[in-house]
Amino acid sequence: MGVKYNDKEKQFHLFNEKISYCLGVSPDGEVGHLFFGKRINEDQTLPLLQSRGIRPLMCNLKEDEDYTKELALLEYPAFGNGDFRSPAYEVLQGNGSRVTNLTYHSYDIYSGKKSIPGLPAAYTNSDDEATTLEITCRDDVAGLEVVLFYTIWEKYPIISRHASIRNVGTDQLTIERALSCCIDFPDQDYNWLQFQGAWGRERVPVERNLSDGITAIESMRGHSSANYNPFVIVKRANTDEENGEAIGIHLLYSGNFLAQAEGDVYGRLRFEMGINPKWFSWPLKGGESFETPEVMITYTKSGLNDLSQNIHSFINNHIVRSNYKNKPRPILLNNWEATEMNFDEEKILNIARKGKEAGVELFVLDDGWFGKRNNDYAGLGDWFVNTNKLPNGIAGLSKKINELGLKFGIWIEPEMVNEDSELYRAHPDYVLGAPDRARTLGRHQMVLDFSKKEVVDNIYDQLYGVFADTDISYVKWDMNRSITECYSLGGDPDKQGTVYHRYIMGVYDLYERLRKAFPEILFESCSSGGSRFDAGILHYAPQTWCSDDTDARERIRIQYGTSYGYPISSIGAHVSASPNLQTGRATTIDARANVACFGTFGYELDLNEISEEDFERVKEQIKFMKEYRELLQFGRFYRLSSPFKKNLSSWMVVSKDQSTAIVAIYKDIKQPNEPVSLIRLQGLKETALYTLNGEKEFYGDYLMESGIPSIWNEEPWYATEGDFTSKIYVLKSNVTK
Ligand code: GLA
User: Fold this and answer.
1) In a domain, 676, yes or no
2) Who wins on pLDDT, 139 or 45?
3) In the 8-state DSSP scheme, what is residue 367?
4) Residue 6 exposure: Cα atoms within 13 Å on the Cβ side
5) For residue 507, what are the CA distances in angstroms to 119, 227, 255, 525?
6) Are 357 and 314 members of one domain?
7) Is the peptide bond before 579 cis (omega within 30 degrees of 0)?
8) Domain count, the chain
9) In degrees rounded to 5, what are phi and psi of residue 439?
């Protein structure tokens, strides 16, 4: 692993055992792209691809009439110099010009990786895990300096990138576009996979064909959103789970974003990702700098499972920071679907007691414990206990929960305020809203102006009071509406284009301060379920409530889609009541648990209200989860059969030493006289003899080349179980042929 610099050709080659990323200085001094893909020989000198051969209507350099930016592959392209594709950045200068031209100035190569002030970023645990290349480019006319950061990781086929834009002159500059990366691919024969949806049906994989013109997804909602996730896979058309080339690009950012692929008429493809340039403008005085968020670029030539596995491991080891990093997560019981806001201390204790009896480890008190929060018209912003419901306070309740032998967790929604709240009455200027205009509400609430430090300080002080007073070991941090009328009241008119970004920086700041003050707390992020599920938020909260949709059938789809870009240990998944609150669908308690166990696992119902038989199953499920959660949450995860394509879907996890695996097979709709399918397993040791649920024995090669049948010979093919049934197989081996 390292970065090789070829001084003669001015070329940089970042490489590890798996990948190479090569760039160099173009004839006009700009930083050009040379290669990205599977590892190639680092001594190779790379030609600039077809950037010569001027054709009519192309613009060229005066000094080199044969070179045109229109054909060049570039690393951080500018606007206005003959490259007519989308630029990576745009800077407005004092004279009204947006034309800039960055030329290579210097480089630095060092072990390790720097953090990015105020933003999430991948980190090393020791300097030898990564090497960083910094390339400094300058535009002396504009007084502009841009440093491009590239980090190559020793153990992962991953490059981390971001840019730092600096005003090194004296005149003010305004950044109007500052993307995190541009990757110019020399050909266009790619599809892309985006993860889209809405509330209750998040992260559905949708494949689109890339060709000429622009393909893009974005968020302008102020959070990364359920609509489009800030993670995209650019892949060859025939790449599947087991084979083929693919590149996954994550933006480590939880605010407005843009991901765009632009095919040009010369058969090239420009991929760009970063903060959404819409309504973004950032004034930069002399001496100031602006940091873009980071992107994480993962490469594979071995299919989408391999891509996801590298991503999972990388996020767990280099993005997540928490006392719970790489640790099995507590089995929790949340009262939301059981009580909503209608509870008192006794009701809560009653639910918690039954949870303890079942084997639950953590009780989470959801929305409704604070201020005048009896419905969603009031209370947000007032982070002090509602003593009508909880006369002994949060401290009193948590003590009683602790005495039951359970840990205690709590729900907050710190970024929001209701009109009916003490906070809003005291500080009406704390909310975002355009002057003299009505504000749009979302769930009857307004968004606090987290671009203002005093607002973040106020919420920090309030929450600090609650957390310090109580033995809290878990916090669910919610965010239940998108941002509208994004204007910071009383703020400088010239700085309103900074508010969306400053807002999310305020969110990160609050997270960081609370994390530091209470390192023992496990944070779970949430945004009406999974509307802010991104690699940035995982830097602060290692798990995210994946969706408000807890229906077992729907959850297979949501968790399947989520697994492409995010580790199983980050996927909040609970067993809720049946019929399901979101869909009205009835499923068995096992069907629900068999999906939720491929996640952080918990319950979201009143266990007093289920049948004795189901309660016995719950006890068994918790026992199973305690035994296998480490494997389920951190094992090597394989998608085997897609619920979006087949009636029978399946996934599995395998332990690092391949001695243990857990396979889940889910049937959607029961058909009479149905055909038998074989589910071919993956990741096992070919020569190892595995027992399935302690009964049948098979060698790994047979299970991978032939597979597990959906119905065994001895099972009745006319089974009457009905729809949405599932099977879990535990495979164990200690014998190798
Ligand atoms: C959101 C969350 C739910 C629950 C409610 C409480 O919708 O996604 O899990 O916490 O808020 O109001």
Assistant:
1) yes
2) 139
3) S
4) 18
5) 10, 21, 10, 12
6) no
7) yes
8) 3
9) -105, 140
Q: Give the number of other CB atoms < 10 A from CB of residue 429.
A: 13
- Please indicate, yes or no, whether residues 550 and 699 belong to a single structural domain of this protein: no
Strands 688-692 and 2-6: what pairing? unpaired
pLDDT band at 673, cuts 50/70/90? confident
CB atoms within 10 A of CB 342: 11
Q: Lay out the sheet containing 522-525: strands in order across.
A: 571-572, 543-545, 522-525, 474-477, 407-412, 362-365, 332-334, 602-604, 574-576
Catalytic residue check, 548: yes
Domain boundary among 607, 634, 661: 634
- Ligand 1 atom 8, closest CA: 528
In this structure, are 266 and 350 located in the same domain?
no
Q: Confirm whether pTM is higher than 0.90.
A: yes
- Residue carrying the six token digits 């997270």: 511
CA dihedral 289, 291, 292, 294 (to 10 degrees): 160
| Polymer length of the chain | 737
- 41-73 burial, b at 16+ Cβ within 10 Å, e below that, comes to eeeeebebbebbebeeeeebbeeeeebbbbbbb
CATH code of the domain in which 84 resides: 2.70.98.60
pLDDT 10s digits, 317-357:
999 999 999 999 999 999 999 999 999 999 999 999 999 99
Is 551 part of the annotated catalytic residue set?
no
- The amino acid occupying position 230 is P
Range of 102's domain?
Answer: 2-318
Domain check: are 113 and 235 in the same one? yes
Pocket of ligand 1, candidates 526, 547, 550: which has the most ligand atoms within 8 Å of its Cβ, to mutate? Answer: 526
**Per DSSP, which regions of 112-155 are E strands?**
130-139, 144-153
Residues in the ligand 1 pocket, defined by CB under 6 Å: 336, 366-367, 411, 478, 480, 526, 528-529, 545, 548
